[in-house]
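Dear all,

This email documents one entry for the complex benchmark we are building for the journal club exercise. For each entry we list the sequence lines for every component of the assembly. Then comes the predicted three-dimensional structure of the complex as a token string, followed by one or two observations. Please use this as the template for your own entries, and keep the labels exactly as they appear.
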Amino acid sequence: MEFSILVDSFYKMELTRKRLELTQFLVELFEQTPHETISKIVYLIQGKLRPDFEGVELGVAEKLAIRSISKSAGIPIKRIEDEYVKGGDLGHVASIILEEKTQTTFLVEDITVERVYETLFKIARLRGSHSQDMKMKYISSLLNDATPLEASYILKILLGTLRLGIAENTVIDALAIAFSGNKDNRKILQYAYNVSSDLGKVAETVATNGIEGVKKFEMTLFNPIRPMLADRIKSEREAIEKMGNQFAAEYKLDGERVQLHIKGERVVLFSRSLENISIYYPDIIEKIPKVIQADNIILEAEIVAINENTGEFLPFQELMHRRRKYKIEKAVTQYPITVNFFDILYCNGKSCLELNYKDRREKLEKNVKEDDFIKYIPMTVVKNENEIEDFMENSINAGSEGLMLKMLDKPYQAGSRGSHWLKLKREYQNELGDSLDLVVIGGFFGKGRRTGSYGTLLLATYDEDEDIFTSICKVGTGFSDEDLDQLYQILNPKVTIKKNPRINSEMEADVWFEPELVIEVVASEITLSPIHKAAMDKIRKNTGLALRFPKFTGKIRFEKVAEDASTNKEIITLYKGQKKVAHDKNLM
Ligand code: AMP
């Protein structure tokens, strides 16, 4: 398939934000795509090469891209950097520069989607000392044969700056229309996606075998399932109102959620965002097969750091010491854990998702044996507010965060947040109501004791409508020296030459970062702000929202990607809630 067909679609899609138009462009594109190429197209549309859980990352930095453009166009690096700083993204810069070149040379060969994809895949696979040079060679070879417009999109994909604003839902709608002529079939496709987390695979199945083929789609081991999520509630009373008079209450442990896929000795661990995190937990990989009674199984658990002497649960930060690639054996002995199981999704070749909560819990207990390391999450059935309060007390005393409340007669709803699971934290640790997860977008160099680190960070919320990150506050308190060191190590490689176009902020940060890292903060209040961009114009014209007295809680949310951060919609709800409390207080 000619790459120019894909590029023409990209170009049209970039010009609209309307979901219906995007869907239509996608349908037209899918109809022109050979079946064996459709999965590649679906990944590329999302700026990926493979589903996230396979961890195939392009990892091309701006500097390398600039060198490649320079090599391909025979133009000095400095000139490209100057153009880049002037405006636009590197894709745009490449197209301008190559435009000049194409006027003097002939194109060598048409490039195809397959060739671009294979080359990008090779680039992603390269490791080791000469990998930078090899990457540059591959990129330049593509740029040499590409038209200026094609080159600009190749660079956008390479740098991860292709932003078509196409949500997974839109791809699913378009697949349903293109291959079954009926948008209602999206439900069948959505289910297949929820149990496979692989939209490319779903696309290939529907293109090749039609909607009937997708109906036969089965979950498979070592292919993660999109997790079920919980709604947040604020009181025991609200739980009773929403869940009726009998439901399960489990401890809400403060650790890392993990999905375990096990067949004999083979074990793979996936995080909440479906990243393969097996390397951080060699102790689980070693011990888990011994306690499993089934031939194959998919389970969910919360990994928690513990105090080995007392067995008490320790806060999440302790567990994060495990997030290191080197000397992991040392971390394993230094930071002991337990694995606390709460669900079973698959057992002996069959899905368990359709079973209700009660049956799943029973099956879990039948197929996993408890010991010092492997536990079931403490659970009880509750009937009224008092019972919830009592169990909450036990949970907090054991060192956990609160409770998860789950309906007894409901199945596991992969990939959805809903009212069948609710989360209730004991008390609101700050006046705002709850902590916020924010994306680190900029940094300010520290002074005095903090020299050599970022003493203050600029944080952002996620704007779901625009798919961008909007600044909401600067935070400089709550950091221990160790936190500052760790944050510096993590953030330094994320520094960019100029602000990522997805960042919306008027602040003048010393450095800008790729918007990737999520940290947790608490604050005293949300206020109107003339400077910050969160929820701009939503409450008042030309005014955004900002956090007052923000403080880092010590939690780096490694398990979250930037798009999982608190959204502007949530901030607006919190802002309105806070106004209502103030109003109610005034009336009393
Ligand atoms: P939050 O991150 O605040 O949205 O809370 C949801 C998270 O709570 C999940 O992703 C799990 O990591 C964690 N969790 C702790 N205990 C449980 C439990 N008993 N059931 C489900 N999730 C739990």
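Observations: The two ends are 69 Å apart (CA to CA). Residues 230, 250-253, 257, 272, 302, 342, 377, 404, 423 surround adenosine monophosphate (CB under 6 Å).
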